[in-house]
Design goal:
three-stranded antiparallel β-sheet; 2 helices
Length: about 70
């Protein structure tokens, strides 16, 4: 399992959820929340796939956030 932490001040909730949904066919992806981050765990058939999928998920979520006007502040 590879874990990714996405800071809430940089990523929109809906962008993280959409990125997870778009990549869910590649691996088991589970989101968990805390006060400051979204935690995303990625489990795939090979560890190198997990790392690549986690990295792409972070990039995709950031791109979606920016496309929607940037982080939702406040």
């Amino acid at each position: 399992m590879t874990e990714l932490r996405l800071h809430r001040s940089l990523y929109r909730t809906e962008a993280v959820d959409e990125a997870i949904a778009k990549l869910a066919h590649l691996a088991e992806i589970v989101r968990s929340d805390d006060d400051t981050h979204w935690g995303v765990s990625v489990t795939a058939d090979r560890s190198e796939h997990e790392v690549r999928i986690a990295a792409e998920l972070g990039n995709f979520a950031l791109g979606l956030t920016l496309a929607r006007g940037g982080p939702a502040l406040g």
